[in-house]
Amino acid sequence: MTPRSHTIGKSAAIAIVGAAIVGGALTGCNSSSGEVSTVSAPSTSYVDNPVDPAQLNQVLDRIAATGLPVTGRHDATAARCPAAGCSSAVESDQVILMQFPSTGRAQLYAGAHPGDFQVVDLVLTFPAGTDAAQNERYTQALQGEMR
């Protein structure tokens, strides 16, 4: 019996080198600091918008059906949304209902405006000087409609 050589064949050596190169490319290496970082897939932006903008008036209709007044309604998208970042808005004498492109954006807006009420991607705002007890009734009505 003849002893086997302990050398690797040419194709095996190429496979090992190829695997090392691919492995290095997939994990990435920052040579200046020696840190290894992973390559992530590009992120995709999704819009979380469960309420159709055309339905803002229907939401206000349901609030009005609870016995709360919602008078003087008009589309306020052009007047309010450029500054607020909302996608649509309806204003009445008692409340302003704004819809945002995502729940997160609605949360950010409501968080920056004390007294506003946010549920899902909607923010309910009240005109200056309105009664806090009445505002609470509107927020409860909106919350009840969104369940």
Short account of what is shown:
The protein has 147 residues and is α+β, with helices and mostly antiparallel strands.
Characterise the protein shown here.
The chain is an alpha+beta fold. The strands form 2 sheets. The chain has a 5-stranded antiparallel β-sheet with strand order 3-4-5-7-6, sandwiched between helices. It is globular and about 30 Å long. It has a domain at about 55-145. About 20% of the residues are buried. The chain is built from 5 helices and 7 strands; from the N terminus they run αββαβαββαββα. Residues about 15-30 and about 35-45 have low confidence and may be disordered.
Structural class: alpha+beta
In which order are the strands of the major sheet placed? 3-4-5-7-6
Alpha-carbon Rg, integer: 29 Å
Shape descriptor: globular
Helix content class: 40-55%
Count, helices: 5
Uncertain spans, ≥5 residues at pLDDT below 50?
15-32, 37-47
The major sheet is characterized as: 5 strands, antiparallel
Q: N-to-C SSE series?
A: HEEHEHEEHEEH
**Average predicted confidence as pLDDT:** 76
Distance between the termini: 82 Å
Strand content: 5-15%
Counting DSSP E segments of at least 2 residues, the number of strands comes to 7
